[in-house]
Amino acid sequence: MTVKLISEYSVTESLKKQVIEWRRHFHRYPELSFQEHRTSQFVEDTLRSFGSFIITRPTPTSVVARLIGKEEGKVVAIRADMDALPIEEENTFAFASVHKGVMHACGHDGHTAILLGVASVLSQLGDEFKGEIRLIFQHAEELLPGGAQELVKEGAMEGVDYVIGTHLNSGLPIGEIGVLAGPMMASPDMFNISIKGKGGHAAAPHEAVDAIVVGAQIVTNLQTIVSRTTNPIDKLVVSVTQFHGGTTHNVLPDKVELNGTVRSFDAALREKVPAQIDRIVKGLTEAYGAEYTFTYEKGYHPVINSEEITRLIEETAIEEYGEERVKTLSPKMGGEDFSAYLQETEGAFFNIGARNEEQGIVYPHHHPKFTVDEDSLEIGVKMFLRITEKLLAR
């Protein structure tokens, strides 16, 4: 059997330009989580134009493309997310978002374009290789319950031996590649606390049960979960991010709402926190004569990268770009639903630098002026191709 190697094919200048054009198209027409109808149709149409792929639509706004070799072998999945964010764009370039209040402020437009570039190169293999390459164009990374978990439920990961993904990183300079074995990103859980007191006149607080005072005490005391009941070696964040209550200066409201997030890497620690929050809220509301309701919603699993696959990615990056351009990242408390795939099989997530201070590309993710250095796209295509070849050969 004739076996073609992915490394036989280069990323040409014309493909590099095409990937940039794709990224700009997606940036111009962003769509929110679970609403990526135009984006997913564009992806499907482009994939069909390549030939070679078996294309399915596991959910209304996702696309999975399979390239199957003549001979059985390893199955490698590559994932790109496609959704945008509810942010009003402040960039003024020609391909800025045409949809008011929606923009690609996290680089998913680049991720999708990169994976289309990978598909364009892989389509030249036909079936003259061993194994299977599965391209997952995923919807709804930004919004629970997340597109990754839905795709897992629909069978997108069945039979997959390895899964890889990347994120363009505006905090990492262009040309650098970031890797981290083990815990990389945290589980982003959410909670809501509703405090019911007794309203009254601000001049007569003794006749009321001040829900704002109770809420303020809860905010303060929740910090002790991290500072006094958690081992300092463990990584945990408990943040109250919303506090709603009151209508005017001279009325004590009868109700306040608190919302927040809990971030952790450790499953056992994650399981303990809801009961700790509830115990604090219960004690304080009882002490003040108030009532409460408490809800807790688990978010994505933490991203825990395979040691072996991370080393393979690091070795590949060093071979392609040199040791000085490969950086070891620090764990981040942000969340990523790529973790759903890692619950199913071995794999790893890595970062590609997209920051360029000389060009003013310096804004953080989720900022209205966020953008990426488009030279990062070619790096993404090359890295995915080289890593995939190595994984197929394992």
Q: Could you characterize the architecture of this molecule?
A:
Helices cover 32% and strands 27% of the residues. The mean pLDDT is 97. Strands 1-2-4-3-5-16-6-15 form an eight-stranded mixed sheet, sandwiched between helices. The protein has a four-stranded antiparallel sheet with strand order 10-12-8-13. The protein has 394 residues and is of the alpha/beta class.
What key phrases describe this protein's structure?
single chain, 394 residues, alpha/beta, Aminopeptidase, Alpha-Beta Plaits, 8-stranded mixed β-sheet, 4-stranded antiparallel β-sheet, 10 helices, 16 strands, 32% helix, 27% strand
DSSP strand content: 25-35%
* Principal-axes shape call: elongated
The CATH topology of the largest domain comes to Aminopeptidase
- State the order of secondary-structure elements, H for helix, E for strand: HHEEEHEHEEEEEHHEEEHEEHEHEH
Number of domains as seen in the coordinates: 2
What CATH architecture of the largest domain do you see? 3-Layer(aba) Sandwich
List unreliable stretches of 5+ residues.
none
**Content-based structural category:** alpha/beta
Please give the share of residues in helix. Answer: 25-40%
Main pleated sheet: 8 strands, mixed
- The main sheet orders its strands as 1-2-4-3-5-16-6-15
CATH class of the largest domain: Alpha Beta
**Helical segment tally?**
10
Name the average pLDDT.
97
Radius of gyration: 24 Å
- The count of strands amounts to 16
Question: For the record, what is the CATH homologous superfamily label of the largest domain?
Answer: Zn peptidases
Q: What is the chains' assembly state?
A: single chain
Task: Give the termini separation.
Answer: 19 Å
